[in-house]
Amino acid sequence: MLNMLKCKICSKKLTGYKKKFCGDICYQQYKKNRAKRVYELRKKRYPERQCSVCEIMFFPIRLNVTACSRECSKIQGARKQKARILKMKTFKPARPFEERILNISKDVKTRCKRVKTAQFNESDTTKDAVLDYLKKGNTILKFPDSPRAKVPSVNMVNGHTVEAKIGFGHEYEIDEEMKMISEINTE
Q1: 72 — phi, psi (to 5°)?
Q2: Which helix (H) or strand (E) covers residue 57, if one does?
Q3: Which pTM does this prediction carry?
Q4: Which of 9, 13, 40, 147 could tie 26 with a disulfide, CB 3.0–4.6 Å?
Q5: What is the per-residue pLDDT across 46-96, written as a single tens digit (0 to 9) for each?
Q6: 75 contacts 104 by C-beta, under 8 angstroms
Q7: What is the gyration radius of the CA atoms in the chain, in angstroms?
Q8: CA angle 20, 24, 26 (to 5 degrees)
């Protein structure tokens, strides 16, 4: 039965273990013919459209193809990229003298209060501007006073003193021990 098989391209008798083609040349020819058939089937699947670059009518391979060839596709890509760059370079016009309306909500339930006076540090550079703002009848938001810093004597455990925790007071005990040692050595 193996001797009765013939090549699909040239119809020669097949030898050995070959089942469809007599050699590599016939196999390559088969692949080329098959690729042409597939291309022709795909080519006519979608309706004809006009190329966006050269305006020639063509059948697209896919629905999103808008250029007829690779050259037209490269030109189209370059145009799109240039348009993107120009869009990025355009800035919105600056409006430095536009008056902005402050949105001050009075319904906010916080511990902050609106006051007509202010306290300043000596190094505060905004003092004049704030005072001018207050003279015009406006108010500023005052945050609640923060709690005082914690003192180390709070919550001391095991009856230690603050000096013992921090390190003060030990030198006095060492000095007394050194005096006792020096007295013993001198005797």
Answers
A1: -65, -35
A2: strand 57-58
A3: 0.31
A4: 9
A5: 888 999 999 999 888 888 999 999 999 999 999 999 999 888 877 777 677
A6: no
A7: 46
A8: 60
Query: Lowest mean pLDDT: which of 17-26, 32-41, 159-168?
Result: 159-168
Long-range own/partner contacts, residues 23-28 (CB < 8 A, 24 or more apart): none
Q: What angle do CA 173, 176, 178 make, to 5 degrees?
A: 110
For tokens 């905004």, what's the residue?
126
* Distance (Å, whole) CA 54 – CA 79: 13
Q: Which of 29, 31, 70, 63 is nearest to 46 (CA)?
A: 63
What are the tokens at 153? 């004597």
43-62 burial, b at 16+ Cβ within 10 Å, e below that, comes to eeeeeeeebebeeeebebee
From its phi and psi, is residue 118 left (phi > 0), alpha (psi between -120 and 50) or beta? beta
Secondary structure (H, E, C), 98-123: CCCCCCCCCCCCCCCEEECCCCCCCC
| Domain residue limits, the chain | 1-43
Cα-based distances in Å from 82 to 57, 85, 89: 25, 5, 11
Other C-beta atoms closer than 10 Å to the C-beta of 38 total: 10
